[in-house]
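Thread amino acids onto this structure.
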């Protein structure tokens, strides 16, 4: 005689709430049920190893089967099973007094993982089922039992004919969930969530070929969809480089090979394993982000790890596996708590230690890979203060000669020639080596060294360095004339009187037809350009920030007053010729030409003005 009863949730509305509130994705049901089967199997293995079960273990595997005609999915295991009393305890007693309490308890998602504690993983089956049957036989000497429920709070429990140890869960799929009766859909879910389960998961058949030539035969066998001993779960000491590279190819089949990796393995004060890879990062950082997969005991949870690892570490690829990362009830989103912060700090420290080790032991190879490593390190230094303190020792600066320096090494290199009058180290850099070539050459004539800062994040990184390190000033090579990039008390004597300087400004304004131009005459070296257009560092940075944020030139465009300075070299021979010219037309032509040369060096001479400049150059020749 079948026993009938009522599931003790004290509400008729708990199942709709479980279906809609508990899980964000309906395909989670299969992960939960297979994970429960794995737990049951591992518990039996544990009991056997402790001597509390002396029976034959037999084949320990989980099987998933789809019957499209019957509209059922069956998940079977040969684990510890349950007695009738255990079914009543763990399946029937969903430990909430009502829907209101349920929603209130989880509205802020601030509890630890409760799946398994209240049987809610099992109840995910009702998201896709009209009816669920559980047929189970305990490893203990107890009769088999069958439990069934149609998604209401009513259930039936009766004896069953099952003779083998373990549990079968039969899902009678509802009309809205018929997609899960397609084998390719089940394969997709199993490959996503169960790819590295620690117990074999069998689904479907596969054909293998044995022998060669005339002896070759094809054999159909059950298909095991998972690798039960993934690389991160193995001892690092028994692994070779090729093992890590093969695993990376398995995770990211279409990606370039990584540069190097870190094998995480810690069991105190938390349990964490995993492998993190440093990919070859290109200029588009977004292509590389969010490639880390989170597992809990080899069960895939999510690839959204923003609450576990700092933003810059999300450029890394690989796997993190930890049962100690608390999850909300759906196992789909992470919670920020003290344990997570400890894990995050640990990962950051290990990454820093690995980079420091590579820098100290294999500096030449480290420098060769700096193009990719540099984006990663700079990104980390900008977003994580603790990482900044560690990384400033192995962050490299590259100059236009292709030489590499740490920050301290570079300070020592330029100390003799690039200290300003306030004892600031002036780091002169180029963001466009080809476009700023004339300015670079001018700086080199002064004996200055020029750094290359031309990656997508260098504009932000420059400000970060100035903010966090004392006595360092960053100046782009075209921020001023070469003689003023490093401010000192030394001055070049002018060959022009003050009246002559004023006259030069008048001649230029008249010849260029613009009385509002910001012009000044400076006493510069005679081998400097006759006219130079410079863009003040602050205004240029603001413009670039606006452009990166999609604001274009905006208020920081080159036509805004103060956004550019036009410097006339009073000591240049052409300026003297302009002053002495008796023919106003000739003077005007020289003015226009020297100004256009300055425009050309900044890449600002275009269209009709460029055409006229070329023609005028030919005439002058």
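Threaded sequence (621 positions):
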């Amino acid at each position: 005689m079948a026993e009938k009863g009522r599931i003790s949730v004290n509400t008729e509305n708990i199942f709709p709430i479980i279906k809609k509130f508990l899980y964000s994705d309906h395909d989670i049901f299969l992960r939960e049920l297979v994970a429960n089967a794995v737990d049951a199997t591992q518990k039996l293995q544990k009991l056997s190893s402790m001597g509390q079960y002396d029976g034959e273990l037999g084949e320990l595997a989980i099987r998933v089967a789809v019957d499209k005609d019957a509209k059922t999915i069956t998940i079977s295991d040969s684990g510890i099973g349950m007695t009738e009393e255990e079914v009543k305890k763990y399946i029937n007693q969903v430990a909430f007094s009502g829907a209101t309490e349920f929603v209130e308890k989880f509205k802020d998602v601030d509890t630890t993982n409760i799946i398994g504690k209240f049987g809610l993983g099992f109840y995910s089956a009702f998201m896709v089922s009209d009816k669920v049957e559980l047929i189970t036989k305990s490893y203990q000497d107890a009769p088999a039992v069958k439990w069934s429920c149609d998604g209401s709070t009513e259930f039936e429990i009766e004896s069953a004919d099952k003779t083998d140890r373990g549990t079968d869960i039969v899902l009678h799929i509802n009309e809205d969930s018929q997609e899960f009766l397609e084998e390719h859909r089940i394969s997709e879910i199993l490959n996503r969530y169960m790819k590295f389960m620690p117990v074999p998961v069998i689904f479907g058949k596969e054909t293998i070929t044995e022998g060669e030539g005339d002896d070759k035969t094809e054999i159909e066998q059950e298909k095991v969809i998972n690798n039960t001993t993934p690389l991160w779960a193995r001892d690092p000491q028994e692994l070779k480089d090729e093992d890590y590279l093969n695993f990376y190819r398995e995770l990211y089949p279409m990606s370039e090979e990584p540069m190097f990796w870190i094998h995480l393995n810690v069991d105190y004060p938390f349990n964490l394993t995993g492998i993190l890879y440093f990919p070859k990062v290109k200029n588009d950082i977004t292509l590389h982000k969010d490639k880390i997969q989170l597992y809990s005991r080899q069960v895939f949870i999510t690839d959204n790890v923003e609450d576990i690892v700092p933003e810059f570490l999300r450029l890394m690829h690989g796997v993190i596996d930890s049962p100690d990362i608390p999850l909300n009830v759906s196992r789909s989103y992470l919670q920020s708590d003290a344990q997570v912060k400890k894990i995050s700090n640990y990962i950051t420290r290990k990454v820093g230690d690995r980079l420091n080790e590579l820098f100290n032991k294999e500096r030449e190879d480290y420098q060769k890979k700096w193009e990719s490593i540099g984006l990663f390190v700079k990104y980390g230094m900008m977003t994580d203060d603790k990482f900044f303190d560690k990384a400033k020792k192995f962050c490299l600066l590259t100059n236009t000669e292709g030489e590499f320096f740490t920050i301290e090494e570079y300070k020592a290199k330029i100390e003799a020639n690039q200290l300003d009058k306030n004892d600031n180290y002036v780091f002169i850099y180029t963001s466009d080596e080809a476009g700023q070539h004339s300015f670079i050459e001018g700086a080199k004539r002064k004996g200055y060294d020029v750094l290359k800062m031309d990656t997508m994040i260098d504009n932000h990184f420059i400000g970060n360095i100035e903010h966090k390190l004392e006595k360092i000033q960053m100046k782009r090579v075209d921020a001023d004339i070469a003689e003023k990039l490093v401010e000192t008390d030394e001055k070049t004597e002018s060959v022009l009187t003050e009246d002559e300087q004023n006259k030069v400004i008048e001649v230029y304004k008249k010849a260029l037809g613009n009385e509002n131009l910001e012009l000044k005459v400076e006493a510069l070296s005679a081998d400097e350009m006759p006219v130079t257009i410079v863009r003040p560092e602050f205004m240029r940075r603001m413009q670039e920030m606006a452009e990166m944020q999609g604001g274009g030139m905006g208020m920081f465009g080159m036509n805004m007053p103060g956004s550019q300075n036009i410097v006339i070299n009073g000591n240049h021979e052409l300026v003297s010729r302009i002053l002495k010219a008796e023919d106003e037309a000739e003077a005007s032509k020289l003015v226009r030409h020297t100004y256009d040369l300055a425009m050309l060096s900044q890449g600002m001479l275009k269209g009709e003005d460029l055409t006229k400049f070329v023609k005028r150059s030919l005439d002058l020749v």
